[in-house]
Amino acid sequence: MLVLALVAVAGCARSAGSGSAIRVISRPLPSLPTSLLGGGTLDPSLYRGKVLVLNVWATWCGPCRREQPVLERAWRAYRDRGVVFLGINYTDDPAAAKAYLREFGVTYPSVRDPAGTTGASLGFVGLPDTYVVDRTGTMRRWAFGAVDAGELDRMISEVLAEGS
C-alpha cells in the first residue's frame, strides 16, 4: 500500500504542470467497486453498453482539483449521448471526499477505492488518471495527468466514433 501511495503522490506531483499524456489502449475493464461515496451501491447496469469515462482522483491532488470543473462540464455535455461518468476516489477519507464533491458541484457518481486496489487494477500510475471505455467494456483511451477540455473531448469523441 505504501508503494501505491508513493506512486500516486509522485504522479500527482509530476502532472502538476505538465498536462496529460494520452494513450490509445485496449484492455478489458476490470471489476469496479460498488460502494458509492454518497451512500448506497453502484448498479453496474449504469455503465454497461455505454461509453464510460472513469476518473481516478483524490482530494489532496492539486491537478485533480484543477481538472474537476472540466470533467463536470464534459459530463453535462455528453450525458445525453450515451456517455456515463464515474469517479473513483483513491485512498481518501470519505468525509473529505464528500466535501470535495460538494465543493465542485459534481453531479455524476463516485465510488470509493479505500485501499487503491481499483486504481492498481486499471493500470494507473498516478493521479489523476482518466480512462474512456467503449460500449463493449474495453478501455480505449487513457490520460495520465490532468486533462483539459480539448483532450477530454477528443478522447470521448474518438471512442464514440469507433462505434464499439
Give an overview in words.
- Helices cover 37% and strands 24% of the residues.
- The protein has 164 residues and is α/β, with parallel strands linked by helices.
- The N and C termini lie far apart (35 Å).
- It has one domain: Glutaredoxin (3-Layer(aba) Sandwich), CATH 3.40.30.
Secondary-structure topology with pairs:
Layout: H1 2-14, E1 21-28, E2 51-57, H2 62-78, E3 83-90, H3 94-104, E4 110-113, H4 117-122, E5 129-133, E6 138-144, H5 149-162
Parallel strand pairs: 2-3, 3-4
Antiparallel strand pairs: 1-6, 2-5, 5-6
Helix content: 25-40%
User: Strand-and-helix sequence, N→C?
Assistant: HEEHEHEHEEH
Unreliable parts: 1-11, 13-18
Give the number of helices.
5
**Main β-sheet description:** 6 strands, mixed
Strand content: 15-25%
Distance between the termini: 35 Å
Work out the number of β strands.
6
Structure classification: alpha/beta
Q: Number of folding domains? A: 1
The largest beta-sheet arranges its strands as: 1-6-5-2-3-4
Rg, rounded, reads: 14 Å
The general outline is globular
Average predicted confidence as pLDDT: 89
Name of the CATH superfamily: Glutaredoxin
* CATH classification class: Alpha Beta
Query: How does CATH name the architecture?
Result: 3-Layer(aba) Sandwich
CATH fold-level name: Glutaredoxin
